[in-house]
Amino acid sequence: MRRYLRIVVLCLACGFCSLLYAFSQLAVSLEEGAGDGGGKPQAAVASWLAGGGRSTLRGAGPVAHPGGSDRCKDFSLCYWNPYWMLPSDVCGMNCFWEASFRYNLKIQPVEKIHLAVVACGERLEETMTMLKSAIIFSIRPLQFHIFAEDQLHHSFKGRLDSWSFLQTFNYTLYPITFPSENAAEWKKLFKPCASQRLFLPLILKEVDSLLYVDTDILFLRPVDDIWSFLKKFNSTQIAAMAPEHEEPRIGWYNRFARHPYYGKTGVNSGVMLMNMTRMRRKYFKNDMTTVRLQWGDILMPLLKKYKLNITWGDQDLLNIMFSHNPESLFVFPCQWNYRPDHCIYGSNCQEAEEDGIFILHGNRGVYHDDKQPAFRAVYEALRNCSFEDDNIRSLLKPLELELQKTVHTYCGKIYKIFIKQLAKSVRDRYARSPKEK
Ligand SMILES: *[C@@H]1O[C@H](CO)[C@@H](O)[C@H](O)[C@H]1NC(C)=O
Ligand SMILES: *[C@@H]1O[C@H](CO)[C@@H](O)[C@H](O)[C@H]1NC(C)=O
Ligand SMILES: *[C@@H]1O[C@H](CO)[C@@H](O)[C@H](O)[C@H]1NC(C)=O
Ligand SMILES: *[C@@H]1O[C@H](CO)[C@@H](O)[C@H](O)[C@H]1NC(C)=O
Ligand SMILES: *[C@@H]1O[C@H](CO)[C@@H](O)[C@H](O)[C@H]1NC(C)=O
């Protein structure tokens, strides 16, 4: 018994000594830090404080600390090895000390989410509401790429600059541009300016990945969540879209199209996630030549061949393209691009019935007329809402009352799916940052 006691005492003594050593190491490292002007711990604290300690951990994954930390090679090393077993250039105590900051630091240089929209004509208010919904719920910083007719630039700038206090987004305005040879032809395809989106991979050469959305989109959950599909792409996938229809009996492409289209019912391009690095690299199979063509070279021949047969402009061209290259498309479920078609004659988007609508797409102008009051109610609630927490939380109750007035329509009958995810997003947002914002 005595012997065991002695061993225990010995162990405790050893433990105590190593603790002392550890603290001395810590002290030394702090001095060193002060000595060489901006050592790691202080720098870490400083930049952490500068970052407002804003936690954007969710979904961010491990991102390399930009300065790199030569002493703390690997986070897991610190946790799983006592410091005396670490390689000589790795100091366990420093790891331990810095680790608490690194949780915040690591996610500091977060990858931004790039969001693009093309706005022409009377779409200013609608576009601003879309951008607002993106800002309200998103976690990571957003970079907006706004393509707009020249006369809209001034208004966009004014409105966006008045939100700059939020510091969670940045934006760039671009003019509408088409390849000079055929500018006129591209412009009149479908709606003016819509085909701009086809050229985004060629215009935004520096951008790796991009979420393109129509102006009539509303985000009912963080943009981060749809962005995370990029990581789920297999090696051949370059873009992601939702099906155009769930129900082939009312599908458009399968009944009327006079050109090839993707899958059973085609895809809708109103919400399109792109890994543009891959789009720029890929050589596409096509039905015009036997050689494969790159994105930049395929668009014009495609338009020439099909221009008399296409109805929905650039979306049809995308369908033709992916019908020949189906392995390149990632298809996400309908609740990420929920349109009147999903409920107008009865509900047919099963995923939305289960989990709610994630991204609402009020195409056919339903935010601005009385045909689908459920869509309009959500739009107006977000349009009226400001960025204050209380204001955002109090948007739900009146919206629900408004939606209850729409139960005479098929979409209104299932109005609960319009607020299911929205209510959760509001709760999550509040839980994330009770004080700031
Ligand atoms: C915002 O974007 C502009 C270019 O549009 C860029 O010069 C600037 O550095 C960006 N700011 C931040 C904080 O990312
Ligand atoms: C266009 O539609 C017509 C009539 O359906 C069809 O005969 C023709 O082959 C189509 N053109 C192309 C390029 O698919
Ligand atoms: C896009 O694809 C490129 C090339 O495969 C890859 O390096 C990059 O990480 C991808 N981007 C995203 C956001 O997954
Ligand atoms: C990627 O997924 C698509 C769609 O499921 C599939 O057609 C393609 O074969 C897959 N590619 C690889 C390399 O597994
Ligand atoms: C939004 O504001 C307008 C006027 O500013 C008002 O008429 C409308 O009822 C409001 N809608 C909602 C859903 O709060």
Automatic annotation (TrEMBL):
It is a single-pass type II membrane protein. It is found in: Membrane. It catalyses: 3-O-(beta-D-glucosyl)-L-seryl-[EGF-like domain protein] + UDP-alpha-D-xylose = 3-O-[alpha-D-xylosyl-(1->3)-beta-D-glucosyl]-L-seryl-[EGF-like domain protein] + UDP + H(+). PANTHER family: GLUCOSIDE XYLOSYLTRANSFERASE 1, IP22168P. It is an enzyme of class 2 (transferase). It comes from the Eukaryota. It comes from Callithrix jacchus (White-tufted-ear marmoset). Its main location: membrane. Glycosyltransferase which elongates the O-linked glucose attached to EGF-like repeats in the extracellular domain of Notch proteins by catalyzing the addition of xylose. Residues 1-22 form the signal peptide. This is Glucoside xylosyltransferase 1.
